[in-house]
Amino acid sequence: MADLIIRNGTVVDGTGAPARVADVEVTDGVVTAVGDGGGGRLDGTATREIDADGLLVTPGFVDIHTHFDGQVTWDPVVKPSSLHGVTTIAMGNCGVGFAPAAPDRHEWLIGLLEGVEDIPGAALSEGLTWDWESFPEYLDSVAAKPHTLDIGTHVPHAALRTYVMGERGADHTEAPTEGEVAEMGRLVEEALAAGAIGFATSRTEVHRTSAGENIGTLTAGDAELLAIAEAMRRSGTGVVQLISDLYQTPDDDLAQRELDLLERFVRTSGRPLSFTMQQAYHSPDRWRFQMDWVDRMVAAGLDVKAQVAARPIGVLLGLQATANPFLFCASYGEVAGLDLGARVAALQDPERKRRILAEHGEIAATLEPGIFQQIMCGFDITFEMADPVDYELHTDRSIGARARAAGVEPISVVYDLLLERGGEQLLYLPLFNFAHGDFGDLYDMITSPNVLFGLSDAGAHCGAICDASMTTSSFVVWSRDRRDGEPVPVEDIVHGHTQRNARHVGWFDRGVVAPGHVADLNVIELDALACHPPTIVHDLPAGGRRLMQTAEGYRHTIKSGVVTFTDGEHTGELPGELLRGTRPAPR
Q1: How large is the average pLDDT for residues 524-528?
Q2: CB–CB of 295/283 below 8 Å?
Q3: Measuring CA to CA, how many Å separate 579 from each of 190, 194, 196, 233?
Q4: Residue 94 and residue 243 in contact, taking contact as beta carbons nearer than 8 Å
Q5: Sign, CA torsion 569/489/88/533
Q6: How far is CA 582 from CA 98, 324, 366, 445, 558, in A?
Q7: Calpha distance 138→201 (Å, rounded)
Q8: 420: enclosing H helix or E strand
Q9: Could you count the other beta carbons within 10 Å of the beta carbon of residue 68?
């Protein structure tokens, strides 16, 4: 008798193959059979059977770009990712994390993650147990705690650098000594031997500590990076992940220098590499330059991929969020410290609204183009988040377009919207992947052959971004409800979130519904699939806030053969484990 049989489901197996109706049998945490005859029917019985007639059966989703490095040390459920069909995550991305960690660097590392990833420092200070110093000890700490999903992590360059160099390592203008370079290489080898899935770094001006300082890895030189590449070559395992300003710089020479450095790293290490690729408003075609390079590297036999998001990367604006268009207005500042209910009541005063809008206009007139100008005045790229959220954006549906059609000022519409739902209404402002006001470029990006679906940043940007739901929205936007262009087959969306990501990281035992593979599965009612708008919750340690987003349509999520969620509710099961290194394909 099997442990579980899922009957009559439409199996989208993760490989990109056409969907088919078939039963799926699970025993001892792995798929043991997939029906391929007699209408896909399997004989035999199971301890539990799930009727999936009319539902999709997919592999569990593999999110290779998260920042749960702190949260997994105290949170076994790992929301919101686990609410969106994710059964395996990779952490330690962008070179930031909490190991290795010398005892005198704890506060600095907390400030690093607070600044770079907008994770409340007070929550990290209270939640982190610091029962580790070395990276292998950190892995042991994570492995000792049960979770709803499986976890792998990279060695974060920023933590490694300060562990070896001390305070100097936090300064990107400081070069390591020859001995320090050798020690970094040794520690990378040690981490990979203990089960790190790779090495991650950051080379972007955007990443700064809570004190506003550049990240220490920003301009790491050839000697440092290539020594780490040599260590990876000697280890013969691990992937490389990074973010660089090359995707957004208008400087052709800078972009080419970065690409030349990455090529040297890949050729030296012999390991797979992926890096962030987004479309910036001020450099809307740079991503194509980057994608052309990726394609050339692949043609030359190098394992290089661009990590892309399946929707625009956007900041959420709201009265409880990190940002809203009125933060710099004095009359808003007078009430900003009130609790939400009292603040909404004060903002409903017509005279206060008049003053705030007048102050807003004065400030807006002085702003240069950039993110602050977009947050305060980007009405043609700002959207109301309805329930369910409509993630397919077009400037024709923006708040600016709505205001013009109604003959009113857009800022007045924004003001009134932010007071709705008791002040919990959020607005969505895409910062990347929306330079031409539609999804045409994004379609080209996500359907390129040498990309990975990533960049959810789940676990980070707690008051500004909630893209852990990207798995859910990609089905709705691209496969089910696409209205402004060509849809993407559901088989391709599933493949992008499962086998393709898992295979790149070296997890060959998952991402496919086939005998011998880990029984990580989703049973999905596609017609009901939807993202509810994010809400602010205060469930982090020390009462820290974060954005939480739930979904409809996931009838069951199954991790290693164990049902972890049913209709969005956690069953209490915690079958997840730490993944150390690569996982071989089943025989």
Answers
A1: 98
A2: no
A3: 16, 11, 8, 21
A4: yes
A5: negative
A6: 22, 43, 53, 28, 21
A7: 18
A8: helix 420-423
A9: 26
Q: Distance between CA atoms of 147 and 151, rounded to whole angstroms?
A: 9
Closest CA to 88 of 105, 68, 74, 106: 68
Residue 177 has a CB neighbour count (10 Å cut-off) of 11
DSSP-assigned states of every residue in 466-516:
--TTHHHHHIIIIIIS--SS----HHHHHHHHTHHHHHHHTBTTSSS-STT
Per-residue pLDDT averaged across 109-122, rounded? 95
Q: Looking up tokens 């009430």, which residue turns up?
A: 335
Q: How big is the chain by its Cα radius of gyration, in Å?
A: 24
Mean pLDDT, the chain, integer: 97
Could you give phi then psi for residue 533, rounded to 5 degrees? Answer: -65, 145
How many Cβ atoms are within 10 Å of 241's Cβ, its own excluded?
30
Which uninterrupted H or E stretch holds 126? helix 121-127
Cα separation, 441 vs 287, in Å, equals 10
Token code pair at residue 55: 């539902």
pLDDT band (50, 70, 90) for residue 39: confident
In angstroms, the CA 258 to CA 484 distance is 35
- Hey, is 357 helix, strand or coil? helix
**What pTM, to 2 d.p., does this model score?**
0.97
CB 532 within 8 A of CB 550: yes
Give the pLDDT mean for 477-501.
97
Q: Tens digits of per-residue pLDDT, 47-67?
A: 999 999 999 999 999 999 999
Q: In Å, what is the CA distance from 172 to each residue of 199, 203, 267? A: 18, 10, 24
pLDDT bucket at 528, cuts 50 / 70 / 90: very high
Closest CA to 157 of 187, 130, 136: 187
Residue 542 is given by DSSP the state: G
pLDDT value at 476 more than 80: yes
| DSSP conformational letter for 1 | -
Residue (of 418, 250, 216, 464) closest to 319 by Cα position: 418
* Count of alpha carbons within 13 angstroms of residue 206, beta-carbon side: 17
